[in-house]
From TrEMBL:
PANTHER family: MAJOR FACILITATOR SUPERFAMILY (MFS) PROFILE DOMAIN-CONTAINING PROTEIN, PTHR23528. Gene3D superfamilies: MFS general substrate transporter like domains. It is found in: Cell membrane. It holds the Pfam family MFS_1. Residues 1-25 are annotated as: Disordered. InterPro entries: MFS (IPR011701), MFS_dom (IPR020846), MFS_trans_sf (IPR036259). This is MFS transporter. The lineage of its organism: Bacteria, Bacillati, Actinomycetota, Actinomycetes, Micrococcales. It is a multi-pass membrane protein. It comes from Leifsonia poae.
Length: 432
């Protein structure tokens, strides 16, 4: 994976970490390979979250209630590992002095470890082994995301970040669709976990090979002790208010989005009495429709945001559209209505993902800690995936006592949380 030295600029320690775009365009290969790397990671992470983990746990547990509780446990604890790994790996990549570059070792190493962890889940015969495997996979694959996405402010001028963010953002729905296709294609748990993991490795290595990574030849003078370790997960919200409001906005919107995906297989079986094969086919159709809507809103949102020079309205509108979709999903009278609701959610999510990353890069507290700060922001992605599965069984159980039912109550709760995110974005004052 060694690239010619002229493609890996060696800079003084302070400048090596700071963005170096200086108004010039990013390398031609950067955007497509970054998008492919994100696609690979999201296929590996989201395929289990969306579909395959639920069926894996159904196959090794005694009944539906045990499977639901196990799913909440595995995804909740695993998301905590993602929460820790993302900012920590980001901060460590800011300090990495490898001759292969600052980001590349984390991209390649994380993808390989993630693949091995997914392979462990594939052959697991107990919830405990699945839990261990998923925790390792979440930590490793989030390290890849932290390092890969930190290259965006490294490489891309601020005026083009909305467009690039939109292109990268569309990889999320494409990954969901691709993962659903793989689960529909393979009936065995082994292939449902190993194939997404292998795809992640291939695309991550491809990105690393083409990345004109930056080298940090001198180790930063600041030591990395316990204080710095715990500092990887926090920031001063009073000093950096815009960053704090950005974090909360992302957290609330992602809570609504993450809550939908995790329990959809159980929702379809409970409300419409679909078997596993019909459920997988329905999820594939829902994700295909969602992807089409996302494919429309994601690039358009990013380009319009750059042209108009505003980020907040796009985030707010995206959140409101997702709220409408969640309410429709909660009250869906039939499977076709579920498909339409998923399309509406995809329309909102596409706009959100296209602008969210661009907005985030404009409120970072410290240019010298780009990957660390993006990692802290990514906690807002990971934390809902931990909290949502943890509290969902209780809300579903309480909802079952109401005329609406358990799962509709859960989706309405997610709609309220997403609505809060759409409103809070206007607390950000430093970005239009």
């Amino acid at each position: 994976m060694t690239l010619p030295s002229e493609l890996e600029p060696t800079l003084p320690p302070r400048d090596a970490i700071a963005p170096s775009t200086n108004g010039r365009r990013e390398p031609r290969s950067f955007v497509p390979t970054l998008a492919l790397a994100n696609f690979g990671v999201f296929v590996a992470v989201l395929t289990p979250v969306m579909v395959s983990m639920a069926f894996k746990l159904q196959h090794i547990t005694a009944n539906a209630t045990e499977a639901t509780n196990a799913l909440g446990l595995v995804l909740g604890v695993g998301a905590l590992f993602a929460l820790i790994a993302n900012p920590l790996a980001g901060r460590l990549s800011d300090r990495t002095t490898s001759r292969f570059g600052m980001r590349r070792p984390w991209v390649v190493g994380g993808s390989v470890v993630g693949f091995l962890a997914l392979a462990l889940i594939a052959v697991a015969d107990s919830v405990a082994i699945v839990l261990v495997g998923w925790c390792i996979a979440q930590a490793a694959l989030n390290a890849v995301l932290a390092a890969a996405n930190a290259t965006l402010p490294d490489q891309v001028p601020e005026v083009r970040r909305g467009k690039v963010s939109g292109i990268v953002g569309i990889t999320t729905p494409l990954a969901i669709l691709g993962g659903s296709f793989l689960v529909n294609l393979f009936s065995a748990d082994l292939a449902r976990f190993i194939v997404p993991g292998a795809l992640c490795v291939v695309l991550a290595v491809l990105f690393a090979l083409f990345l004109k990574d930056r080298r940090l030849d001198t180790k930063p003078a600041e030591r990395f002790g316990l204080r710095e370790f715990f500092g990887s997960f926090v920031f001063n919200p009073r000093k950096h208010r815009d960053f704090g409001w950005t974090w909360l906005t992302k957290f609330f919107v992602m809570f609504g989005y993450a809550g939908v995906a995790t329990f959809l297989p159980f929702y379809l079986g409970d409300r419409f009495h679909l078997d596993e094969q019909a459920t997988v086919a329905t999820i594939l159709a829902a994700n295909a429709i969602s992807t089409v809507f996302m494919a429309v809103s994601s690039p358009i949102g990013g380009i319009l945001s750059d042209r108009i020079g505003k980020r907040r309205p796009f985030v707010a509108i995206a959140g409101l559209i997702m709220v409408v979709g969640l309410v429709m999903l909660a009250l869906a009278p039939s499977v076709p209505f579920v498909l339409l609701a998923q399309g509406i959610i995809g329309l909102g999510a596409g706009s959100f993902f296209s602008v969210d990353l661009a907005l985030a890069t404009q409120v970072l507290p410290n240019p010298a800690d780009t990957a660390k700060d993006l990692g802290v922001l990514n906690i807002a992605n990971a934390l809902p995936q931990s909290i949502a599965p943890a509290i969902a069984p209780a809300i579903i159980a309480l909802g079952a006592l109401t005329p609406l039912g358990g799962y509709p109550t859960w989706y309405l709760f997610g709609a309220l949380v997403a609505l809060a995110g759409a409103v809070l974005v206007y607390r950000i004052k430093g970005v239009k």
